[in-house]
Automatic annotation (TrEMBL):
It comes from Actinomadura spongiicola. Residues 145-216 form the HTH luxR-type domain. It holds the Pfam family Response_reg. Keywords: DNA-binding, Phosphoprotein, Transcription, Transcription regulation. InterPro entries: CheY-like_superfamily, NreC/VraR/RcsB-like_REC, Sig_transdc_resp-reg_C-effctor, Sig_transdc_resp-reg_receiver, Tscrpt_reg_LuxR_C, WalR-like. This is DNA-binding response regulator.
Length: 218
């Protein structure tokens, strides 16, 4: 796995590089600004980019803009975005056009090495990884009493929250201590209650998670 890191904090940038190289992963470049990041994408053609949301010069959304441009240049590029805190608009945008090979983690997740590496590999394999703390904060925000999520049972909400993290059915079953068959049943119920007509399963799964994120934001 070839990786480019874009992070302006030198301690975090070099710490990430050391961690990944210790795992026998190939960190081909580390950068601290959007321009050098995009140049590294062109020069090294990596499999995965790890990108900070806020980068110079304004420390607003330069990292996101650079990640979008990198995916435009290399549509197959997997991107794992790091943020110091929950940015609800981006968490929703993450899934708005399909979320294959995309992840969004809070920076303190990097210190939980096993979880960070699991998210990195999941994204590299074409999956989705949304930080559990992001999902929790979205879940606990005030919601409109008539939203469609109110149709879901508590267990169905648990399943949908796990789906929003990017977990597959087997992992959801293990987390909730239920059978995989029970997870399939809950997901079918979620699709029905959210009015998602039968179609490609992956598309309905993304649509369900997007609905979840949209209705749990401000």
């Amino acid at each position: 796995m070839r990786i480019v890191i874009a992070e302006d904090d030198p301690l975090l940038r070099e710490g990430l590089a050391l961690l990944l190289r210790a795992e026998s992963l190939d960190v081909v470049a580390t950068t601290d600004n959007p321009e050098d990041f995009l140049a590294a994408i062109d020069a090294h053609e990596p499999d995965v980019a790890i990108v900070d949301v806020r980068m110079p010069p304004t420390h607003t959304d330069e990292g996101i803009a650079a990640a979008v441009e990198a995916r435009r240049r290399r549509p197959e590029l997997a991107v794992l975005v790091l943020s110091a805190y929950v940015e609800h608009a981006f968490a929703t945008e993450l899934l708005s056009g399909g979320a294959a090979g995309l992840g969004y983690l809070l920076k303190d997740r990097v210190g939980r090495v096993a979880q960070f590496l699991d998210a990195l590999h999941r994204v590299a394999d074409g999956g989705t990884a949304v930080d559990p703390d992001v999902v929790t904060q979205l879940l606990t925000r005030t919601r409109r009493p008539d939203n469609t999520l109110s149709r879901l049972s508590p267990r169905e909400r648990d399943v949908l929250a796990a789906m929003a993290e990017g977990l597959g059915n087997v992992a959801i079953a293990e987390r909730l201590h239920v059978t995989e068959g029970a997870v399939h049943k809950h997901i079918r119920n979620i699709f029905a209650k959210l009015g998602l007509a039968p179609a490609d399963r992956a598309d309905r799964r993304v649509a369900a998670v997007l609905r979840y994120l949209q209705e749990t934001r401000d």
